[in-house]
Amino acid sequence: MTLCHADARRIAAILRQAAAAEIMPRWRRLAAGDVRSKTGPLDPVTDADEGAERLIAAALAAAYPGCAIVGEEEASADPSILRRLKGADLAFVIDPVDGTANFAAGLPLFGCMAAAVVHGEVVLSVIHDPLGDDSAIALRGEGAWTLAADGRETALGVAAPVPLAEMSGCASWRYLDNPLRTRIHHRLDRVAASMQYRCAAHEYRLVAGGHCHYLLYGRLHPWDHAPGWLLHREAGGYSARFDASAYDPTDSGGGLICAPDEASWHALHTALIA
Closest Cα to residue 209, out of 261, 135, 157, 154? Predict the structure, then answer.
């Protein structure tokens, strides 16, 4: 199935509607019972996550009859749902509130993400910022751009390559196993700066907009990374997993490095991982 610019705007509108109906009315208004733990204290879920996922899933199913849906909250409860991505003519991956811990804490760093996957390939992605009320969009082979609330579009582009010692970016080593976790942690002084927003949505928007140089992730749930991976790629960036293989939305292992170009990727890989 081929998706086009009109589909990108349609999906962005669905995410914007979900943010307005289910997410923003709960922003800084969550009661104690509205926040729960999934796998542990660092993995919260809220009524906003569940409500937004239901709305987005229903809207996508209505707009694209027969499509497969893989939502973070549904898949967290039943991991077998991830099998829907393999071989589907059209599947949608949904992260209703990326950065739930920030959202629950009242911190303004969270987003709403979706990606379209056709026969295992990510072909369209949208990362909506409910607070800024704009969306970062990527369409495979056609570039990446932001869509403002008034309909204006602005092209996105990654930062120009710089030497390793001048690179700034986001590194998430929380889900890595040792000794790799310790190795990366101890080598981050080789780059100019390392940060983490606890929100892949904004980290991918940051790198795709040219405001930092690299991203490093150890765990690759498709709802966290399929939308941002395509956004970064279509903004002109280069990425690969730690073993130099291509990103695969059906495989959550292997780690990922995103960089401005291939030479920068190799510089980061050598400095932080090799």
Answer: 157
Report the DSSP beta bridge partners of residue 95: 113
Q: Which residues pair with 147 in a beta bridge?
A: 135, 153
pLDDT in tens, 245-268: 999 999 988 899 999 999 999 999
The residue extents of the domains of the chain are: 5-155, 164-272
> Which CATH architecture describes the domain 164-272?
3-Layer(aba) Sandwich (3.40)
Stretch 69-97: mean pLDDT: 93
Closest by CA position to 138, among listed 273, 5, 268: 5
Phi, psi of 61 (to 5 degrees): -65, -35
Token digits of residue 182: 């310790």
- What CA–CA distance (Å, rounded) separates 181 from 185? 6
The CA distance from 105 to 95, in Å, is: 18
Q: pLDDT exceeding 70 applies to what percent of the chain?
A: 100
How far is it, in rounded angstroms, from Cα 240 to Cα 225? 12
Q: Cα(119)–Cα(90) distance, rounded to whole angstroms? A: 7
Q: 50: closest CA among 12, 113, 97, 101?
A: 97
Question: pTM to 2 decimals?
Answer: 0.96
CA atoms of 51 and 195, how far apart (whole Å): 30
Q: Any idea of the CA torsion for 187, 189, 194, 196, to the nearest 10 degrees?
A: 50
Using CA atoms in the order 172, 174, 175, 176, what is the torsion angle rounded to 10 degrees? 80
